[in-house]
Amino acid sequence: MSILVKQIHALAHHYVRQGSKAHRRLQVGRMIKFVEFIEQTERPHNLHEIGKRHVIAFWKAHRDLAPKTAHAYWLALCVIWEWTDKPGQPPKPLCTAESEHKEDQP
Prior knowledge:
The chain has helices at about 5-15, 20-40, 50-60, 65-85, 95-105. It is mainly alpha-helical.
């Protein structure tokens, strides 16, 4: 098990104990898949080293995700953002960002 996956498991222990157990386990699984993807391309040593560039690379590599699945991954990334005290939110998937942009225009 890699360093980042161990960090996710350590942080997720308390996270999974609250709320809907099945949903939280799915979210942790998505977080682990994201971290494993990042570790294939680069070697960050800490969750705090993951940034927007990594998220954008993940979205580019997973363009074929259904909008609902991409949104679920984005929500999991929001939890990682919260755990690492990063400002704002992670970049949204392209399909979600485009649909919001279309709604904003008259």
